[in-house]
Amino acid sequence: MLPFARVTIIGLGLIGSSLLRAIRAEMPTVILTGHDASAEVRETARRIGLADDITDTAGAAVTDADLVILCVPVGAMAAVATDIADDLPADAIISDVGSCKAEILAALTAALPNNPIIPAHPVAGTENSGPEAGFASLFKGRWCIITPPADANPVAVERVSELWKRIGADVEIMDAAHHDLVLAVTSHLPHLIAYTIVGTASDLENVTRSEVIKYSAGGFRDFTRIAASDPTMWRDVFLSNKEAVLEMLQRFSEDLSALQRAIRWNDGDALFNLFTRTRAIRRSIIEEGQDDPAPDFGRAHS
Ligand code: NAP
């Protein structure tokens, strides 16, 4: 049996449009409704047939939903929840896909105290945004971390888990605060580092911008992919997951200082040992199927 008969997605960007495509592909009888704050996005969504109905207001999108998934930037979650409160059926389950969880759980619970709230975070994405950037296979073989509150109804958790499994994700259940700590180091800190390196390089005075671009294959290029990620999304992530990011940033700064010392004092063993350890981590990621084994990220070399 299908976990839900009528699903509403609010926010039709990369993640929202990918979810609609994936549900349509794997559970074609589910009735899909979508809404986005942007008239242009709604127009595109209608043109490419993302859902059975695209509504002009958030309220109209949820009136007969069994499940509503908020796919808007983290900073917009609370406002959308308040917006749909009066139109939401009493038993509709609310979920979201935000990249940090503790603050969103608190905001959704405050705005919608009577509905079951089962937040989720698919650990999948690209550096592109918008309804045309999505694709149905985005979540296949990727983790979806579900962070229910301690008193969540187990049946509601099971139904949301089942939806993600049906579209190909591997599901893990985790406490929201723990999720935020783990993701601070695996996702938020790497983005912050990429934004810094690309910013630093573009500010250099004694190396020209054209040289930075021309010789980017030396490693810089791979940071630019991450640093091209959506500015609204990432601004909200850092402001929402502030504590965990600052804690990881502190540890990172200490480790960077240790590396600085090793270089200054010609401590080759320290450098070699660290680089050996980090190489093994890359191998584990590939062994667990979380990245492609092709060298240089599978880029074609003539
Ligand atoms: P996106 O492509 O920028 O899409 C977000 C959409 O939400 C945009 O069309 C935006 O419209 C719309 N929106 C903004 N405020 C709204 C509101 N109040 N009501 C209705 N629609 C609204 O972003 P995304 O990458 O799909 O990210 C969506 C969520 O997924 C974020 O919470 C993010 O943290 C999470 N997430 C992202 C990734 C990733 O890699 N991208 C991965 C996992 C989770 P405008 O463009 O007009 O503002």
Would you mind describing this structure in some detail?
The protein has about 300 residues and is of the alpha/beta class. The protein folds into 2 domains: about 5-175, Rossmann fold (3-Layer(aba) Sandwich), CATH 3.40.50; about 180-290, 6-phosphogluconate dehydrogenase C-terminal like domain (6-phosphogluconate dehydrogenase C-terminal fold, Orthogonal Bundle), CATH 1.10.3660. It contains 12 helices and 8 strands. Strand 2 (about 30-35), helix 2 (about 40-45) and strand 3 form a beta-alpha-beta unit. It is globular. The protein binds NADP nicotinamide-adenine-dinucleotide phosphate. NADP nicotinamide-adenine-dinucleotide phosphate binds near residues 11, 36, 37 and 130.
Summarize the topology.
Elements (H helix, E strand, L loop, with lengths): L5 E5 L3 H13 L4 E5 L3 H9 L5 E2 L3 H5 L4 E4 L6 H8 L8 E4 L5 H10 L8 E3 L20 E4 L7 H13 L3 E4 L2 H28 L5 H6 L5 H8 L3 H10 L1 H23 L3 H20 L15
Parallel strand pairs: 1-2, 1-4, 2-3, 4-5, 7-8
Antiparallel strand pairs: 6-7
Helix pairs in contact: 4-5, 7-9, 7-11
The site of NADP nicotinamide-adenine-dinucleotide phosphate (NAP) has 29 residues, from helix 1, helix 4, strand 6 and helix 10.
